[in-house]
């Protein structure tokens, strides 16, 4: 609670370039150390629970981004879910994992090399990121892991690590070289807070390209012809249902946002694109003030002790509404 309160008082930087088109791989440590009961009922269970919440928050804050999952166990890395904007597919695949798969040792280098292979061919105007959730206190690698850090930096891939056990020099160096973050978890609530800090888009590097991007806005409509969905190429043809047709090639898609697999056109809806740009003009942090009487402007809850006032209009809000406005609505209701 205190950490979130402190985070709200930090002024977000404005007038900076942000990587709002994010392609992020989450590498999950599935070694035997994840079965530890230090975070009850187990590190694995807590990680899966927090990741489910993170997926919702990530796409709420980054509607035109994509997320993928890599699992690492037995010294090997496996691409469990390819980059996608389909929240249901991500959650269904996570739900299929259980603690019984946790075995062997963790390999940081193999996880990073797999992420590098999948991210290095992406366009230069997108933000390429890796978030490693690491429980092990060691990494068993086939080569020099520090040389991999330099390759990642050369491809402008930002790597961050959340450690569940203790601070490690190798993780600290990875975050330093690639301009990422490195944090160590204290408890379950702190874990959730640390992961939620990766929902906001990071500043773009000077090496990031500035390109005009072709975007289409396909309407959601009933498709009467039997056709295959490019999102699920192995499924049977769909006879009648609603979906989206690419404006350029006519390929069928289940949901937006998406990148057409046929013509590579970026498909989004207008509200999603508008939500993506709200990070460029963030709601300024409210100022904490002492309050002895009065009510919250938003929820009418009586204020006692501490409130948070908008710098523009002077309206006073409670802590819960302050969190809601800055993390979800991104606008002061009294100002509008």
TrEMBL record:
Residues 23-179 form the VWFA domain. InterPro entries: C1-like_sf, Ssl1-like, TFIIH_C1-like_dom, TFIIH_SSL1/p44, VWF_A, vWFA_dom_sf, Znf_C2H2_type, Znf_RING/FYVE/PHD. It comes from the Eukaryota. One of its GO terms (cellular component) is transcription factor TFIIH holo complex. It is found in: Nucleus. The keyword Heme does not apply. A zinc finger (C4-type) spans 246-263. The keyword ATP-binding does not apply. GO terms for biological process: DNA-templated transcription; nucleotide-excision repair; regulation of transcription by RNA polymerase II. GO terms for molecular function: zinc ion binding. Keywords: DNA damage, DNA repair, Metal-binding, Nucleus, Transcription, Transcription regulation, Zinc, Zinc-finger. SUPFAM superfamilies: Cysteine-rich domain (SSF57889), vWA-like (SSF53300). Belongs to the GTF2H2 family. This is VWFA domain-containing protein. It comes from Haemonchus contortus. The lineage of its organism: Eukaryota, Metazoa, Ecdysozoa, Nematoda, Chromadorea.
